[in-house]
Amino acid sequence: MVYFKKAISILTTLLLVLVISLCSFLFIGKMNGGKTELFGNEIMVVLSGSMSPTFDTGSIVAVKPVPFSEIHKGDIVTFEDLEKRTITHRVIDIVDGKLITKGDANDGKDSDPVTADRVKGKVQYSVPYIGYFIEFVKSPTGMLIFLAGPGLYLMISQIWKLMRMIKQQEEPAKTRA
Question: What pTM did the predictor assign?
Answer without folding.
Answer: 0.71
